[in-house]
Amino acid sequence: MSDSFHNSKIRKWFASSPPVTWGMRQLRELLIGALRQGPIPQHVAFVMDGNRRFARSHKIETVEGHNLGFEALARILEVCYKSGVKVVTIYAFSIENFKRSKYEVDALMEMAKTKLGQLAQHGALLDRYGAAIRILGQRDLVKPDVLEAIDKAVLLTQGNKRAILNVCFPYTSRDEITTAVRNTVIAYSKPHPPPLKRPFSETHITRNIRAQQLSTVPEDVPSQNPDSRSASPSSSKEFNPSDIEHSSTASTLMNQSDKSEAPPAVTYPDPENITAATLTSNMFTNDAPPLDLLVRTSGVERLSDFMLWQCHQHTSIVFLNCLWPEFDLWHFLPVLVEWQWQRKKLEERERGRLRYKLD
User: Fold this and answer.
1) Using an 8 Å Cβ cutoff, are 132 and 157 in contact?
2) Within the chain, which residues score under 50 in pLDDT?
3) How close are the terminal C-alpha atoms of the chain, in Å?
4) Which residues pair with 107 in a beta bridge?
5) Is 294 helix (H, G, I), strand (E, B) or coil?
6) CA separation (Å) from 149 to 2, 92, 114, 135?
7) Residue 150 and residue 156: Cα distance in Å, rounded?
């Protein structure tokens, strides 16, 4: 045991020496530059699993394991953004994690306050790569002081437009899907807005003028006969049968005009129009590109209620045996190379199908 510990200390000292550090940095830049020559996933998600097991295996506090996990996150974010990834989504805190001990939950909340603030500071990693923080999850489950701190980090990075860091906190995919369905139901339960009335409708004005003209009774024309002056007013107007017809026509036109002013019937959106795209537009990641790559560390091969809706037929899901604090470029590089190879094969198949249809 002592020999192993001694060798570990020697390796760490050697790896941290300036010449080795410089050489590794140059090699990392060279590899990332080579990656950029091929297709790059635009949306990558990480299940950062293994912090507690790493702490237990190294006989350190669980909180320290989470701190080392944050350092691994910073390393991977730099690799992603430098390679050209536009959106990174991380599973920072599950709603189910509230079932853990109060000590660990409080420690994770405090870590979220401090670490997100460090990431968002001017000149820090997110600022250098133009990445904005977005918090996805149920805000009402977060304490006010924690919510204030993460909102401040979001505000500090809201001007960054080149990339995005989605922090799922607290989050489960089932809750996200439930929220999307609920919002869709609310939207389809609201009636369509009434059509805008045309303030100057030519047909409407013409109809009203015609109705008024037909309902107007012409004044009596004075007679030149002196005897007619003594006639009673009622006898000065002759009976005209067409007056009845004009009055009836005017009444009919007025009734039609009144009917045209009746409020339109209330209509609702057709639920037959609800599609998968409708639900996608109500997801927390509605403005993000499709999920290209999902990586989970620690050797556990399940999604644990993460990004269930976003995983589609072309999403590559990779399970790695290393624990999250150990995850670095040397673990991630083979994953990216494999993804590029699969994407090229997919593009070749698509081109083959297109040529077959054209032939």
Assistant:
1) yes
2) 1-2, 4-6, 221, 223-224, 226, 228-237, 239, 244, 250, 253
3) 68
4) none
5) strand
6) 44, 15, 8, 12
7) 10
Alpha-carbon distance of 154 to 150, in angstroms, equals 6
Place of tokens 């290393």: 322
Catalytic residue flag (residue 145): no
Tell me which residue of 336, 302, 305, 334 sits closest to 319, measured CA to CA: 302
For residue 174, the one-letter residue type is R
**Which letter, b or e, does each residue of 260-284 get, where b requires 16 or more Cβ atoms within 10 Å of its Cβ?**
eeeeeeeeeeeeeeeeeebbeebbb
Among residues 3, 7, 49, 359, which one is catalytic?
49
Q: How far apart are CA 259 and CA 14, in angstroms?
A: 90
Backbone angles phi, psi at 159, to 5 degrees: -80, -10
Cα gap 105→319, rounded to integer Å: 26
Query: What is the number of helices (H) and of strands (E) in the chain?
Result: 12, 6
CA-CA distances (angstroms) from residue 177 to 169, 270, 286, 312?
15, 21, 12, 15
Q: Alpha carbon 26 to chain centroid distance?
A: 37
Q: How far apart are CA 241 and CA 245, in angstroms?
A: 7
Tens of pLDDT, residues 2-49: 454 445 556 666 566 777 777 877 888 888 999 999 999 999 999 999
pLDDT at site 67: 94
Tell me if 273 sits within 8 A of 196, measured CB to CB.
Answer: no
For helices 102-120 and 144-157, the axis angle rounded to 10 degrees is 20
Segment holding 91, helix H or strand E = strand 87-91
Contact 108, 170 (CB under 8 A): no
Whether 97 is catalytic is: yes
Helices (H), 234-328: 242-260, 276-280
246 CB-near residues (< 8 Å, 6+ apart): 214, 215
DSSP conformation class of 226: G
* Overall residue count recorded for the chain in this entry: 359
CA–chain centroid gap for 93, Å, is 19
Which of the residues 3, 7, 51, 97 is marked catalytic? 97
